[in-house]
Amino acid sequence: MRSLPRIAKPKVVGWNLFEKICLAAFLIWSAAGLIFTIDHITPEAIANWSVPGWLARFVEFCLHNGDPVLILLAFTNTHLHAARQWTAAIARRWALIILLCAFGIETFGATTGFPFGLYHYTDRFGPMLGVVPLTIPFAWHVVVTNALFIVRSIAPHASRIGEALVAGLLCMLYDFILEPFATTVKHYWIWTEGTIPPLNYIAWFVLSALLIRFFAPTLSSRFRFDPRPSLVLVVTILIFLAGEFRG
Question: 3-state SS of 43-97?
Answer without folding.
Answer: HHHHCCCCCCHHHHHHHHHHHHHHHHHHHHHHHHHHHHHHHHHCCHHHHHHHHHH
